[in-house]
Amino acid sequence: MTIRDAAVEAYREALPALVASLVGGLIAGVVLTGMRAELREVPGLLVLVPALLATRGNVYGSLGARIATALHQGLIEPSVTAGDRRLRAAAAAALGNGLLASAFAAVAAFLVLTALGSSVAPVGVLVGIAVLAGLLSGLVLVAVVITVVFAGYRRGRNPDTLVGPIVTTTGDVFGVLFLLVAVRTVLAVVEVL
Questions:
Q1: How far apart are CA 172 and CA 9, in angstroms?
Q2: The pLDDT of residue 103 is above 90
Q3: Which of 6, 33, 61, 120 could form a disulfide with 44, with the two C-beta atoms 3.0–4.6 Å apart?
């Protein structure tokens, strides 16, 4: 295989995922634009958005890389079975890390904004929003990452070239969507209390 052949193959595998990532990013931007009222109602939420989206990419990109490596090494088979302890452990660790990182980001945003003298929502509200959005988007991301990595591997694609763009796209779209759901849910609960 020549260098040119390798480059063509890499672009052939990655280009559809990159185009999907671009479209997904635009969709996430449209959803975020529609959240103006929520962003005004929860001071500090806008500061939290980039941290939450970056967390999704980092945590679930790592999950995809771990699964791809396990496939390449023959440690797991490209199918979902209830008895696969390695796959369950990797998914649970990613979900746990995502929730902890979300809570940490919310507390950090609260502390930084408070130290700067900026208006900020109560720390419980920010943590509640971040953790609920993290849980909902995490569940979707675990399912999407496992499905895409296994499907790509079974079709002879390198899962490593698929994971990054797919996690970015799914994390952005569902991260912003579930952030909106979380804001509305937490504010409704706070209003009742």
A1: 27
A2: yes
A3: 120
CB 170 within 8 A of CB 141: yes
* Domain boundaries along the sequence of the chain: 3-192
User: Which run of H or of E encompasses 120?
Assistant: none
pTM over the 0.90 mark: no
Name which CATH class applies to 3-192: mainly alpha
What is the SS3 assignment for 170? Answer: helix
Each residue's pLDDT tens digit, 110-146: 999 999 999 999 999 999 999 999 999 999 999 999 9
What torsion do the CA atoms of 64, 170, 121, 42 make, to the nearest 10 degrees?
A: 180
**Cα dihedral across residues 142, 163, 101, 94: positive or negative:** positive
Q: Which of 173, 175, 136, 174 is nearest to 49 (CA)?
A: 175
